[in-house]
Amino acid sequence: MKEESIIKGRGAQMNVRNKFLEHSHEMRDDFLEYCRLEGEEADKNKTSYIEVFPKTIVNKVTSPDVGMTYSMNPYQGCEHGCIYCYARNSHEYWGYGAGLDFERKILVKKDAPELLEKKLRSRNWEAKTIVLSGNTDCYQPAEQQYKITRECLKIFLKYKHPVGIITKNALVLRDLDVLRELALLKLVSANISITSLSEETRRVLEPRTATIKRRLKTVEELSLNGIPVNVMIAPIIPGINSHEVLSLAKAARDHGALSIAFTVVRLNGAIGQIFTDWIRKTMPDRADKVLHQIEACHGGHLNDSNYVTRMRGEGKIAEQLHNMMRIAKQRYFSDKQFPEIDGSLYQPQKELLKQQKSGQMRLF
Length: 364
Hints:
The protein is of the alpha/beta class and 364 residues long.
């Protein structure tokens, strides 16, 4: 495919039909030809921020293989545009598409700090680590303008409540002042996603994320400031970044990370179609090889919804990846230990209410 036909700065190269909607929108060839003749842009490829007003912000995670109990997402959709992102399908619940819509229509939850404080003040809430970015990145470009994540971190500090962060954006360093205070109380940990050491790969795989150099610097700066960092080599995509496991692990260790983790790519729901279209346009010479190797990790399919195998994969290729990760951990992290987050400093509201009462009123 010619270079000019690639939508630059975006991961997805198409929109796909929302399975929940009766009607769909398509760009017809006659309209495109009209725009060409008139010298007009058929698609301006702009990002729009749309304010939404959910009633709650903290989500209970019931999936047994995700590794978190609660999450919250200040934004829905993600301008980073990572082509493999499992969160793309969630945009369909909001009435949008999992392809370009996911990257260009960003839903902003401006009330998130107030909703979080309401949750932490609720009578029966007990401290469990709440992870920022369980679905979409809390430090994506919208955060520069809205600063919702920063305000939420202040709420966690105010109530001495444990919080985890997952991001691939160096913008997290803006909040070092708050993060340092949380770290002194053992209330925070960070997960930085780094999927490749190649800028060429990063640009096509994750077009609007921080550069690899800046991400490694972020790991280093967080570590130097006492924030424990885990590097997520996730997902590993056979034929694209699977050969980088050892070099990624070494780079993570050299920049101060205390641990590494990984997942095997799975292309669930609409992502299979989006990814297939993307790789045939951006990496046509290896598209079939990559797609077949992904299928080999999931019983002959691009997707796997089984909790046991969906993020671990199965088969010979997945086994090789697990062996490589085992070697990486033994070689670079055998002397490291990731600290536990302390949830004991948070005082449940029902206990505070009891302390405020006296005499027989404490019975109620």
